[in-house]
């Protein structure tokens, strides 16, 4: 079963300051945590892909009616907290395992190593249908 | 010799090579790596240089060389002592090497479908060790990166090595139980591949071909086992409908609407002969019952000719045997055909408690409500099913059904 674990720029449950205000050591520890988690998932044969996305400042929105020139809007956006910050695509045996990985990711360290309690959205990827047997 | 010929031959030889190497050197995980390297070397050189006179001996020799190199590279002395020990234990007779054949394939299938492994671990290991597929091919078929699949396979092998099982058939006392694990893995492997068979999913069709090939190999080794025969029959009778099961754009075509002229008559004939033989031999098992149901469907010239009165008691039997609520769903569909939609709907009562809020329960109820003429309720159920399915094509199908009823002129 495949799941997307999605994380946004929104407020985290620990209500810590945004990352640019952390100490360099705390930022480093956070990045290392993410890398170690990816490495661990890769070794378990569960990681399909993991990517962080460039910030809302360089995001663009595109709207087109299929005829005229598309409308392209540059950031920054008032609703940037709702934008995706990054994702992990995992291939695991059960929903429980996906939830456990999401819990690990949610507890990534923030300032002074305190878990930031980031909300992780867990979404199953649609797969091919079962055979009719 | 073409690449395709080489590939075909290598897949046939893979379990015999691995069997011989494990017998000689003892360690399953190392032997499997060495075999894989020998197969890759053959795939690269044979189409260019020609096939050696004795391909099997060539592969065993190359794999043996790789494994000895590996032992030399590793922490030297201790490993060499182990090697010497395993030589003397594993292969007192140098002629034992190529004597394996069907038995080696069977032993390997038992090892790869070891009960200590989950099916998700056993499936790729079986494909590689017994099926002779490369890690890349398996990764492509399962749409994960090659490195991820390599890790999954090596973890599976480590578990088997840790179980310290001798390279032999399981003891008679546990053989029946172990065979259940094997059949379950092969069944799931077939489902993996059968689930889609068009366009970008071509690699997946290879997976069900591979499941059939492996099940044929197990059947060749255990021709008298009725459940093995039943599973092979089930696969053939299901695979016979493959071409008719998806439309031009990959959309799902349900059994009722399939163009039966596109069904594979040769596979159906073989499947029917196998299941007839298995049922005569017994004892009855769940794969045989599923195959018998598939045979009834496959023998109907048109959907309307389906002999539902033969299918209903088979589902009742399967339900009693497995206690699986999914079987009850299928029984409800069949019962609706013999006794009307009301009788089918009645069987669905109380199923939520056992099945949960499952999309199939909603979709079966939707179909039966439509048959009963209650389109408004059917629309609600089709939409509920579409919202809950995790299958892309099924989601399209269910959404389309809801839309069809919602836009139909009132009757």
Summing up helix and strand content along with how strands pair, one would put the structural category of chain A as alpha+beta
Helical content of chain A, roughly? Answer: 10-25%
| Rg of chain B | 24 Å
- The helix tally of chain B amounts to 21
Count interface residues per chain for the largest interface: A-B, 21 and 35 residues
Textual characterization of the structure:
The complex is a heterodimer of chains A (133) and B (411). In chain A, the strands form two sheets. A four-stranded antiparallel sheet of chain A has the order 2-5-1-6, covered by helices on one side. A two-stranded antiparallel ribbon of chain A has the order 3-4. With 133 residues, chain A is α+β, with helices and mostly antiparallel strands. Chain A has a single domain, classed as 2-Layer Sandwich (Alpha-Beta Plaits), CATH 3.30.70. Chain A has two helices and six strands; from the N terminus they run βαββββαβ. By secondary structure, chain B is mostly helical. Chain B has 21 helices and no strands. About 5% of the residues of chain B have low confidence. The chains are: A alpha+beta (133), B mainly alpha (411). At the A-B interface, strand 2 of A face helix 8, helix 9 and helix 21 of B.
């Amino acid at each position: 079963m495949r799941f997307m674990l999605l994380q946004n720029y929104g407020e985290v449950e620990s209500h810590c300051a945004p990352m640019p205000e952390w100490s360099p050591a705390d930022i480093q520890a956070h990045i290392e945590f993410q890398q170690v988690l990816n490495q661990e998932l890769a070794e378990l044969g569960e990681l399909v892909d993991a990517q962080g996305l460039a910030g809302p400042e360089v995001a663009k929105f595109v709207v087109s009616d299929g005829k005229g020139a598309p409308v392209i809007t540059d950031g920054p956006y008032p609703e940037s907290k709702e934008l995706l910050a990054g994702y992990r695509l995992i291939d695991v045996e059960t929903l429980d395992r996906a939830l456990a990985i999401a819990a690990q990711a949610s507890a990534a360290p923030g300032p002074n190593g305190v878990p930031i309690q980031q909300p992780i959205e867990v979404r199953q990827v649609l797969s091919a249908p079962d055979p009719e047997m | 010799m073409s690449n395709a010929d080489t590939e075909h031959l290598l897949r046939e030889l893979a379990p015999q090579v691995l069997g011989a190497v494990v017998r000689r050197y003892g360690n399953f995980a190392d032997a499997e790596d060495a075999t894989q390297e020998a197969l890759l070397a053959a795939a690269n050189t044979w189409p260019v240089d020609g096939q050696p006179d004795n391909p099997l001996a060539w592969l065993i020799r190359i794999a043996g060389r790789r494994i000895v190199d590996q032992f030399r590279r590793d922490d030297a002395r201790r490993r060499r002592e182990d090697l010497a020990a395993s030589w003397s234990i594993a292969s007192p007779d140098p002629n034992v090497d190529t004597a394996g054949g069907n038995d080696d394939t069977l032993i390997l299938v038992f090892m790869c479908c070891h009960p200590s492994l989950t099916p998700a671990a056993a499936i790729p290991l079986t494909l590689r060790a017994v099926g002779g597929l490369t890690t890349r091919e398996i990764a492509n078929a399962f749409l994960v990166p090659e490195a991820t699949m390599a890790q999954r396979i090596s973890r599976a092998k480590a578990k088997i090595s840790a179980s310290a099982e001798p390279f032999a058939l399981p003891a008679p006392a546990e053989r029946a139980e172990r065979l259940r694990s094997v059949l379950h893995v092969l069944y799931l492997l077939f489902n993996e591949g059968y689930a889609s068979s068009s366009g970008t999913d071509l690699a997946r069709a290879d997976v069900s071909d591979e499941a059939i090939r492996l099940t044929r190999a197990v059947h060749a080794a255990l021709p008298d086992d009725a459940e093995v025969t039943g599973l092979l029959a089930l696969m053939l009778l299901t695979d016979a409908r493959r071409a008719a099961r998806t439309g031009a754009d990959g959309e799902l075509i349900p059994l009722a609407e399939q163009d039966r002229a596109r069904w594979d008559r040769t596979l159906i004939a073989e499947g029917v002969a196998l299941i007839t033989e298995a049922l005569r031999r017994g004892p009855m098992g769940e794969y045989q019952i599923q195959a018998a149901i598939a045979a009834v469907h496959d023998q109907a010239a048109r959907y309307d000719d389906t002999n539902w009165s033969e299918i209903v008691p088979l589902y009742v039997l399967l339900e009693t045997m497995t206690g699986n609520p999914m079987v009850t769903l299928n029984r409800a569909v069949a019962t609706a055909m013999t006794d009307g939609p009301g009788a089918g709907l009645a069987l669905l009562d109380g199923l939520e408690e056992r099945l949960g809020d499952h999309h199939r329960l909603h979709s079966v109820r939707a179909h039966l409500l439509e048959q009963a003429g209650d389109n408004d309720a059917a629309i609600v159920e089709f939409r509920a099913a579409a919202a809950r399915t995790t299958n892309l094509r099924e989601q399209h199908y269910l959404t389309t059904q809801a839309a069809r009823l919602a836009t139909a002129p009132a009757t």
